[in-house]
User: Fold this.
Amino acid sequence: MELSWKPRGWSVGADPAGQAVRDKREPPPFRKIAKMGIRQSAPRDIDEYIAGFPPDVREILEKIRRTIRNAAPRAEETVKYGMPTFVLEGNLVHFAAFKKHIGFFPPVKGDEELKKQVSSYAGPKGNLQFPLDAPIPYALIARIVKLRVKHNRERGRRKKEVSRKDAKTQRERR
Assistant:
């Protein structure tokens, strides 16, 4: 008897009427498949992430990385959600290579003019998709990063103000 995994369970043969009989066991553990090849494990840093792609895509990813670094020199590099991520008072931006595009996350908010400029790159959930077969708009990426830095810093200031008010209120209660 041959076992094979089907989307609805293990196929274990056929019943007397010829219908497939399925066992509802869990699927076999699959390796994590990267967008452009098989990756044994999640990348530990951005260098390792970029190294897993073909040379032409690596060049684009490195240039995006430099663009973000120039726009936000104090941001820290890390990998979150399996994607290169820059952090500055919270997640700043994520980017990732896919089969036909570079994904750039999160969606642009707070600047209507910039929203119009990125509308041609908007994906189904508002995240940006830069096609690999077209020029990558590095200047636009820099503007997005600068806007995100501004938003993150404002949010950080608001959090500090709220925590100061909370601390003051607690001192007054004592």
